[in-house]
Amino acid sequence: MTVIRLKTQYFVFMIFRWLLDLLQKRSPVNKRRAMGYGMGMTYDELLADTNDFNVANGFFCLIGNPRGGEFNASFYTPAERPIMLTWHANGIIGNGGFQYLFQAEWPGDLDYSRTVEAHRLLGCRDQVNAFELALKAVASAEPDDSEEKHRLFLALPDEEQRRIDRMYFGNHDDGVPERQIAAYIRANAKQLSHLRGRTS
């Protein structure tokens, strides 16, 4: 009797597990959409999304996907540039501060002037101030010498590096970059309508 009960319970458990697995399977039709964060969505779906992170990240993907994710500041139209340069910088600085940014390749904007202007255009004052301090610290490096920029930034006292990084992600009285990017996208939807037909 006990063996039969155990086998029955095991059988019920396996059916239950199979049903759970079936319900949790992601659609093979659109794996990117299943990831979330604005991925796998169309232009119109992103504009209708109320989550600023999804909108910023989704439009970054809409713009970048046709180039296989290759980044170059000179690739983008004036309407795309604030989205691409700000979101890309935000991601790199968020992962490791300005020292990571200065280690990364930044083709098409070796002196970061377009990137600073993109932040300024979006109204990201804290981030512009942080960029200006970081760039002042690496001003003696040649624009295409990322190793020297990285070395010069690391030569700053640790507390100064952290202060500049914190400034970028500081109190955000003017809004975090994702909020500013999403507001820009919604306000400039017509200039970005060439992205219709793409999927993030």
What name is given to the CATH topology of the largest domain? A middle domain of Talin 1
The biggest sheet amounts to: none
Shape: globular
Q: What count of helical segments does DSSP give?
A: 10
Helix-and-strand structural type: mainly alpha
Count of folded domains: 2
Radius of gyration: 23 Å
Number of strands: 0
Could you give the order of the helices and strands?
HHHHHHHHHH
Averaged pLDDT, please?
A: 85
CATH class of the largest domain: Mainly Alpha
Strand portion, in percent? under 5%
In the predicted model, the low-confidence regions spanning at least 5 consecutive residues are: 26-30
Plain-language structure description:
This protein is globular. Helix content is 62%, strand content 0%. With 200 residues, it is an all-alpha fold.
Provide tags for this entry:
single chain, 200 residues, mainly alpha, A middle domain of Talin 1, 2 domains, 10 helices, globular
Please outline what is shown here.
The chain has ten helices and no strands.
Indicate the topology.
Layout: H1 2-24, H2 31-35, H3 43-48, H4 52-64, H5 81-103, H6 113-122, H7 125-137, H8 146-155, H9 158-168, H10 177-187
Helix pairs in contact: 4-5, 4-10, 5-6, 5-8, 5-9, 5-10, 6-7, 7-9
